Amino acid sequence: MSLRYALISLLRVGPLSGYDLQKQFQVSVGHLWHAPDSQIYPELRKMEGEGLVVGEDQARGERGTRRVYHLTEEGEAAYTRWMQDPLPYARVREPANLKAAYLEAATSDAARAFLADHIRHWRGELEQWEAELVRIDARENPMLQRRLAVTDPRDHDRTVAFKRFGYEGLVARARAEIAWGEQGQALLDSLYGPEDAHSAS
Amino acid sequence: MSLRYALISLLRVGPLSGYDLQKQFQVSVGHLWHAPDSQIYPELRKMEGEGLVVGEDQARGERGTRRVYHLTEEGEAAYTRWMQDPLPYARVREPANLKAAYLEAATSDAARAFLADHIRHWRGELEQWEAELVRIDARENPMLQRRLAVTDPRDHDRTVAFKRFGYEGLVARARAEIAWGEQGQALLDSLYGPEDAHSAS
DNA sequence: AGTATCATGTAAACTGTTACATGATTCG
DNA sequence: CGAATCATGTAACAGTTTACATGATACT
């Protein structure tokens, strides 16, 4: 359900082809709401069916075409409604915490591998988001530049501040996950001994 | 995919009827992996089809029956495999952060309502999980007691420690979400003024 | 001529949500 | 005898993932 609003977020700065949209998606709003291209094309068609966007076929070379999507007033209205309405919160469903709570059923090696993997995963995410924060501050992200180009200059700081805010939440999340993983490693050290099967070679 | 392992986590301490399982689920592992009862019954049937559990129909009164599920060796093996294998990590998909990043499209009132709601939601979750931590420490959660009853006393502390660890991660998560929401409120104050439409009555 | 990248999807399977549906038993 | 709770689902829909599938154009 959020995918369409992520797509509208991009289309609000101007028309884009499905392909461009998909590419821009990966490097901007896709950090906040991941979606593969195979989901984006059908969703655009569906949104077109509901009147939120209109697609315009453009010739490309001799035979090729590309479909450029424009946001309609109805699409803009749907976006505004989404912004004004409360977000429905889903109950938590965390595989990592589920597994962690029953880790006595794993070998200590598997437990260590699980935590190392958890930390590795979130460090990777953290890196992405921090890099994005740097690009936001420098205002060098291409979609952000296009957005600022169609925004009243008095609102530039606010626009940048909200983008920053969105990513700061994810950065905090990643840091919390990493800290939790490290806390788990300390717990394993205390339960099984610090070197546990990795000392002797 | 995690639902079945959440269910096996409970069945590992002994057989349970679908109904009991569902009830125990809500107050224990359901905090880590939410699922409605309408999902639990079909999943049990599916697991039975795959040989992970066997269901035994028991008479109840004159006409009623209840189906008691036992974990099979195959089910136990599937659980062990899940414990040993690395968890697949899904890319992030956070509606709240998505919305936050584009909050310049909302009115300041809607933005404030969104943050208040976010904080309210996570405070509620936090309360649940902290209460669960207290019950874990007191070892008074019924499923935990049943688990300890079938566990070697030398492993009791470890079992409790991992349960605690699982919930601590969620508590940290909730605290991070609340802190982020408050940071957002401060941001709104700085952008729109601290009292903004809520001062005069 | 070959490679990168532009360009767009379909199909099947899986997972999860919501609403609806029904009836039995136990306790006061 | 009425209410709580025991007991078990189905149906329809929404959302997501994965694998497959194809071909055009631009650049070197």
Automatic annotation (TrEMBL), chains A, B:
SUPFAM superfamilies: Winged helix' DNA-binding domain (SSF46785). It comes from the Bacteria. Residues 8-80 form the Transcription regulator PadR N-terminal domain. InterPro entries: Tscrpt_reg_PadR_N, WH-like_DNA-bd_sf, WH_DNA-bd_sf. Pfam families: PadR (PF03551). This is PadR family transcriptional regulator. It comes from Microbacterium stercoris.
